[in-house]
Amino acid sequence: MSSKIWVFLAVTVISIGAGVAVAGIPSGRSVELAEIPTSVATDVAVSTDVPVDTDAPPATTANTASTEPDVDTTEPDTETTEPDTASTEPDVDTTEPDTTEPIETTVPETTTTVTEPATEATPTTRPPVERIQLSVAVANGASIAGVARSTADRLEATGYPDIRTLDGAETVERSVVYAAPGLQAEAEQLAVDMGIDVSLVFPLSTVPPLLGELLDEQLVVYLGIDVQQL
Fold it and tell me: What is the CATH number of the domain that holds 203?
């Protein structure tokens, strides 16, 4: 409150001085102003003890705060997310291995025996016995008189020597040639010479009964009824 009084007094004195300067102050009154008793000044000074009104609002002070740019003082979120330090361990296979020993199965070996066909021995090819070296007999089984002799004459003209004639004890339909063992080729040749099928050559041991005995004849022609077509 004292500051307000002093300010008020200063403003008053200035206002008075300004009015004197404009209107002029009389000389006589200047003496009176000079003689202002000091008690006034004392009273003024004493009046400084005026109690201060504590209920008055506080003096408003100018906002001297410098306008500074807003500084973002917000601290960054320093929360660090720690990685999951839980180690991911690989799955451990706790399955116990099968300790059962395998059962060995012995498979018997299969032996394949390949039987090669027996190689037939190649028969030794011998030259056929010539007609002149063969002994031949002609038996009449056709019941035709003189047919054995006429056939023997024809064979002798072909190259067979000294053919012996006989009568057969049986009459047969077809003429057949019989050969001693080992003379199959020669018997077939004789059949061809007679005009007889070679399939009608048989072993000498199967010759039909004869009216007479064979001596050393190797081939026998047993004439049948078909001799007339030969």
Answer: 3.30.70.2390
